[in-house]
Amino acid sequence: MRVGLFTNNYLPFRGGVTTAVETLREGLDALGHRAWVFAPAPARALPEPAFVFRYPSVPAPTYPGFALPLPLSPRLARTARQLQLEIFHAQHPFLLGPAARRLARAEGRPIVFTYHTRYEKYAHYVPLPERLVAALAVRLSCRFADATDLVVAPSGHIAHVLASRGVRAPVVVVPTGVDLDRFRPGDREAARRGLGLPPDAPICLYVGRLDREKSVERIIEAFASIAEAVSGARLLLVGQGSHAGPLERRAAASRAHERIHFVGGVARGELPPYYQASDLFLFASETETQGLVLAEAHACGLPAVAVRASGVDEVIRDGETGLLTKAEAAELADAAIGLLLDRSRRENMARAARGCAEAEFSAVRQVAVMAGQYRALLERRR
Fold first, then answer.
1. 37, 43, 45, 49 alpha-carbon torsion, rounded to 10°
2. Side-chain half-sphere exposure of 34, counting CA atoms within 13 A
3. DSSP state, residue 15
4. How far apart are the C-alpha atoms of 15 and 316, rounded to whole Å?
5. Structurally, what CATH architecture does the domain formed by 2-177+362-380 represent?
6. CATH code given to domain 188-360
7. Residue 192, CB-side half-sphere exposure with 13 Å CA sphere
8. How do residues 144-153 score in pLDDT, each as one tens digit?
9. Is the pLDDT of residue 24 over 90?
């Protein structure tokens, strides 16, 4: 099959959608299919692999480092036709999503849409009244979903939400998978040596964007209590984002400031040692469709303490692979302290976490499911 992946988020920008697109592209290639990525041009031109095509773009006014694609390009429309794409797969309902749909309809090909994002939770990035933007985002994203041939939901909760909002297009649940050979339990001591971390300190880890919707300030607040209760505990924050400055100031004002470390952005291929070196993953976001970093942590045998929220509760098995708490820093801290002080329980959870990842989040299995969905769409059109 010949597949076009149309995304508003792509390398060098790091995030869940970028990871999902690359996981799918690599997996399709491994199965013998051909996949091409259509994405916005970054601010600084980079050497590009042959499978990437860039739309002209402009800088996003409210998010530094993010590019907004200009979705009308006769040149790339010709490219899509010349590639003889059989499947057009949109990753967003805006900008390059409608561009993919126009091209698919013009060629008489199926259009697939993955509902990666709870768009109403990102309304604060648009300089208009937040409630108005949130309502409009829901309406437009559901209208776009309803005009596609297949909607992919990363979790059962999102599938239910789409149905409750009146989306009538077929919806299939296919979480983004994790490369279980790359993300796997490793030598904890070797990982710590490689990262320059102390051999015995209890380490809490967060991986993800440092943006407002991720609620990282709740983790920083919780860690102040963790640091008081657990001798030598450290917090590593791996990622970058528009909220990094305020988070760094909050950390500097914390009574545990000397034990909070901002690592910065890390390429995905370099993430496994951080998971392998850590004792516990902390996560406080309530805006996820899946919580991909939780699946990565589990694949590395790392239990998690997280706020109970949609998507998150479909990765963490409460009491088995981690603990789910109320959206309060004190609750997050208490759960984390209990696990950090109970090595035996934490080790049992680590084994269960890896088993969960193997059973439910294998990239190989999920890409094969997606390829099967593509194939079914093509067969229905013959």
1. -20
2. 10
3. S
4. 20
5. 3-Layer(aba) Sandwich (3.40)
6. 3.40.50.2000
7. 16
8. 999 999 999 9
9. yes
